[in-house]
Fold this sequence. Notes:
binds zinc ion
Amino acid sequence: MQVFRSALLRFAEDGQAVYDEDGLLAVAPDAQGRQRVVAAGPWQALAAQWAGQGAVTHWPGRILAPGFVDLHVHFPQTDVIGSPADGLLPWLENYTFPHESRFCAPEYADGVAAFFVDELLRNGVTTALAFATSHPTSVNALFGEAQRRCLRLVTGKVLQDRHSPDGVRDQTEQSLIDTEALIQRWHGVDRLGYAITPRFAPTSTPEQLRGAGELAARYGDVWIQSHVAENLDEIRWARELFPRSRSYLAVYDDFGLMRERAVYAHCIHFDDADHALMRERRTAAAISPTSNLFLGSGFFDYAGADRAGFRYGLASDVGGGTSFSPFHTMLAAYYVGRTAVEGLQTKPGLSLSPAQLWWQHTAGAAQAMGLAGVVGNLQPGCEADFLVLNPQATPLLARKTQQAQSLDELLFALIVLGDDRVIEQTVISQAKYAPSA
Length: 437
Ligand SMILES: [Zn+2]
């Protein structure tokens, strides 16, 4: 058993942030050797029971917090980050597809996978739902690296059998055979999970989507991930290609690709029926604010989502997204919340609370993935993926956090001013990763 004494951030079941200025976190290995939280709360209340059970590590001036969960990120776009383009479709054509075609080479894919996992951990991301490319080699590379580092990671081979250039386009029948073989090889191994991954409806034939839906029905606990309603040109295109579906989102439903453990990136240009469909199918949205601002795609409607009551969480969407840092993503989500939109996609401007933003990137994102109580929180039973945060990481942060009068003020200072420098250590359930090591 290991016992830690430090300020401690976690979340109650209703999503409320709980903060102990002098907290205790006790972790112990389970039967598989995975560290799990056995106690978390105020030092005063818990020390008598737990402090004597293991060596106590004291972190004065630091905050222990749950590892971040990134609900949507493209590992092969690590080098596409920051590429200038005229919106989504030209960006795919000019940068993303040419780059992704290189991942058929195993050595290349392995090299990027190692860098990508380093970058996640350096930024405090301990669980990710990631796209690979259409090449099974890219999936094997990322799973292999995540397994080596004991990371909780879900990924899948991208399905795209049309409207894609040579080098990334796959073949309908083979793509489904490859997907099933990858599910059998990797899903449920250690901390890994498989996601059936159509890129987005326009780049799949109806036959490929139908096959994907059949696999989703056959393997009920694998994930599903794709993109939807990001940009108006993309929506027009999807509607032309699938005229019989009620909406772009409904295309996925019509092929059996909406259910629990399905996570769709963006979900911006939705109507009320789409919102209701998300709730009915228990499907989640991966909100990708830095990407949406970068590509000028639009603004996720938080009020509409809450009215309908469907699940959502935050995502970096690298490389359309501009940062691996959850702090940058949370700040961008705040901008998105503030922005009022009139017209076709009408939404009010509102102020998301700092604790709510943090929840969206930890416990909320875990819930969206169907992993509530497993990751994204530091309650008893959770896998012990956690961060040691340094609120004095920069002179301005030190000055600002020292003046914080409330938890909201403290968290907001970190969200606005923080980046990878705040992450002093990333501790994952079976191994420890320190950036300086
Ligand atoms: Zn994406």
